[in-house]
User: Fold this.
Amino acid sequence: MKRFAFSFSCVLVLLAGACASEVDPADSEPTGYATGGPSEGGPLEAPVLVDVIPMSKVLRVRWSLVSPCEEVEAERRTDAETFALAFTAEGTDTDHVDEGANEDLAYTYRLRCVRGEATSAFSNTLSANPFTE
Assistant:
């Protein structure tokens, strides 16, 4: 009964335009991942590589998003190779298990954000060996 009374009083207050739980729509607009939400405008920024974690002879790659992306492209290399596309993830993903990194080698990763025809610069790089747990 108390809950109903509170809800009813909040409705009355809302009608008056002064409920404490009301959110100003201008305050809820996304302004960029670093400050709480994606921002469609401005330059496209690269994701930030957070971890490359060995697990069961493969690598889990984790990142954070700075700009909203349609896709995240990941490139990898070993010491003897140049960077090549390793995988493409959905633009909202923030991790991926790379089953192609399954040899006893150090793999180095870099990422970039893709939105339409635009691509960001590449991210920082991180390395790991799937056999070193």
